[in-house]
Amino acid sequence: MQPIRSLLWIGPAQGLAESRVAESPTLDITWVPSVEAALALPPMTLDAALVAGPNPDVLIDQVRQWQRRPGAGPVLAWLEVKDPAEDQETESVARAIRQLLETGAQEVLLAPGPGAAGDLRRELLARLDALAERALSGHPTPRQSVSGQGMSGQGMSGQDVSGQGMSGQGMPGQSIPEQSMSGVPGAEPGHPDSPESPSVVGQSAAMRDIHALIWRAAHSRATVLVQGETGTGKELVARLVHARGPRRKATYVAINCAAFPESLLESELFGHRKGAFTGADRDRPGHFELAHRGTLFLDEIGETSPALQAKLLRVLQEREVLPVGGNRPRPVDVRVIAATNRDLGEETRAGRFREDLFYRLAVFPITLPSLRERPEDILELANHFLHKHGQREQKPGCQLSAAARRLLLSHAWPGNVRELENEIQRALALAETGECIGPRLLSPRLTGLMEAIAQAPHAGESLHASLCSIEAWLIRRALDHNGGRRALTARKLGVTREGLYKKMKRLGIA
Length: 510
Fold this sequence. Notes:
- It is a single chain.
- By secondary structure, this protein is α/β, with parallel strands linked by helices.
- The protein is built from 20 helices and 16 strands.
């Protein structure tokens, strides 16, 4: 088998949690509770599926069911063992392993009983990290026959059940990268765990780090601050942190702090009492109270006023809110996740954001990379959006032509992932069913660069003159896109403000 970087785990969540497979920082896991739920999933590209359960007969049945799915790919079986030391259990497990291998399972992994868990799982995690490094560096991982709890893989099954696996039996040559649960079929629509919810897509080095941070943030009680440019997916990260944490069954409440004037924002956040202001005809809870025992996402936290920042700080410190017009604080138990496209460290140094609130929010910071910082993810994202919106538009057969892929890769994507998704949506709306999407269906902002190169005054002359012409076109376009704001334009172009000023002066851009 090839190194595994993406895995569909089919079976009870308890087994996934107890296995601690997801603690390795490089495995992308999609979890579903049953084979029925797995068969209902849309087509997806995964390295392998793993079917888990305690009953050998049921497990064999489930492996057969899954293998009937077109394009099922490699399948692993995870068998929970009660007491491997008992002869009767050993014989039963040996028989189950033979049957599973005959059914078509590539490997059989054994999960020993509670008494054996600690040391073996610690050893497993160390092995997984080493395997991940080998897989990512391109060095092959040798197959090994690993025995555990006195049971040899080869001795029990008659075949080499080998590799580095869970508690002694496992996956050969496989990296187990970081978990990224993309959906739980059967969850309520609109809930962060529902299949309609998007997942964080991308296997670049930058995104593998983000996957790991999301997992660790979800299992921490710390306040999270998500920073990144517009369109990088800050709210998506907030929803995933909530969906993977202990509060996932409680309420997730989101509010955009930039969408309300200060006078209204205070009431929206903290609630108000009847008669607190004109039109307050009844008591109304705020978002903090609505998110009690759940998660509150404060988007655009950098847009709040100093006065409101002081009140937010008090709520975070005291864990209680005072409604507008009220005189009795109300206790709240809320996990706060804040997000901003500003550099709050810089805002703090400039005196525009309270330093004490910044440190209270940035207990667990997550900084999302822009799309231009992870170009290797562009085509994967584009294909993800093609599938997602192709289903909605009833145009599932559309693909990108080679020329369209080149244009996507050459674009700067100042609007990041959101801009890319909008571009794919537009192309699908224009395309016929099954049509190959070429440059003709892409917007002028992508094809405009090629036209600018062809029509530039210096086109066909010296390389330096041509590059200057193209550079000037890109800067003017970015300035127009950002409303003439030079600091923002510099940030979007990935240069310093001083560097942008020098380029503009050299190129004669007013």
